């Protein structure tokens, strides 16, 4: 068997072996969680996608995305000016498109209106950094690009961060999503 395998290797040149190795390295991940893909889709959402008009050509914050590391996983909250709000967890659990529920829609829009001004304090990003296990990050999707602010989990938990108020408001949106998800589950159980 070893001789047969060695003979086959001799028939392939270096480039063929390289192509085979690259193909094996590029095979889909066995990770079945949709978290990464859903998070990427949230960041790829553009202003024109949400169906809100900008009549004054000013910079508009049309979405705020929060990455929040908990003890067990990363939670990403994606909110949009249309009222849509989604929640993605690295465990694979998700709640998508809450804008069809009035309580979530109002909470999401209030969140963005209340904290949109913070984009001016943020750092502009050309690509989206991966979530960090020590940092809570807020990304502001604007018509001029994506900006972000961050602080440590410890500072936010200790209520010593300037980002604690926006974090608390994000928790209010998450609470609305949880309430609606529980209602949906109760309806399915009946």
UniProtKB/TrEMBL annotation:
It comes from the Bacteria. This is Lipoprotein. It comes from Leptospira hartskeerlii. The lineage of its organism: Bacteria, Pseudomonadati, Spirochaetota, Spirochaetia, Leptospirales.
């Amino acid at each position: 068997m070893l001789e047969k395998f060695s003979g086959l290797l001799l028939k392939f040149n270096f480039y063929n072996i390289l192509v085979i190795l690259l193909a094996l390295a590029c095979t889909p991940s066995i990770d079945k969680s949709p978290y990464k893909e859903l998070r990427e889709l949230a960041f790829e959402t553009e202003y024109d996608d949400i169906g809100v008009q900008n009549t004054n050509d000013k910079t508009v914050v049309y979405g705020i995305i929060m990455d929040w590391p908990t003890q067990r996983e990363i939670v990403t909250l994606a909110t949009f000016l249309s009222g849509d709000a989604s929640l993605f967890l690295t465990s694979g659990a998700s709640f998508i498109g809450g804008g069809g529920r009035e309580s979530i829609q109002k909470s999401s829009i209030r969140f963005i209106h209340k904290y949109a001004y913070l984009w001016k304090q943020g750092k502009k990003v050309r690509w989206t950094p991966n979530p960090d296990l020590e940092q809570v990050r807020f990304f502001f999707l604007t018509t001029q690009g994506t900006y972000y602010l961050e602080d440590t989990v410890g500072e936010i938990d200790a209520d010593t961060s300037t980002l604690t108020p926006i974090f608390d408001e994000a928790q209010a949106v998450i609470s609305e999503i949880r309430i609606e998800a529980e209602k949906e589950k109760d309806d399915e159980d009946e």
